[in-house]
Amino acid sequence: MNVTSIVVLMSLLLLGQSFARQNPGKHISVYGTAQVDAAADRATVDFTITGSGETLDASLKALDEQMKTVRGPLGKAGIAPEDIATVFLPSKGEETFSDFWSSEKVHRSQKKISVHVTEVDRLPEVLVALENLGITKGVKVTYHLTRLEDLKRVALEEAVSNATEKARVIAENIGVQLGPVHSVEELLGADTPEEPELNALFDSDRNDSTTEITLASRVRVIISIQGN
Asked: Do 182 and 24 meet the contact criterion of CB atoms below 8 Å apart?
């Protein structure tokens, strides 16, 4: 057999294997679905603090004192210093406040505080600490799910298992024996957000650490049928 014949033969074998993969012959095609509920495992709490004074320096000093007042209770609530991020907000400059009797010029400085709660179970303690400091307005809680990829895999595995069980029931009822799985196709439209975040306003009467999201998976599975 010359080289050309060998090349032709190998090409025919590869073509046959490819055709076999694309054409499973007799088979059962089923759809499987699954849903996985997961509680948020982290959270971020955002709020603003303000320092006021007759001069800009005085307002910055007051802001610094306010920051020290906030850090203490947050530390007792289990928040590490490196999990507290601050950003200065643009200053409005000198503001004038007047009433019937007098007029006063005041400088105000503000910082946005972001508290990263790495263990969501500590969130109620953090919110109570802020409430005790009188910080309740404009508090925003954002929930995060950091185990997203693991949960996607679990949802996919359960959807495939669901489809396989359906195929088993069908095979028993029509009197055939299942062979190997030929293909698994994850269908578009599955509810698997890339970065799920759940927002809520501060509510001291609600335990938001139980906030959950649902990940869904839908697949099409083709399983070969053994025998004739």
From this structure: yes
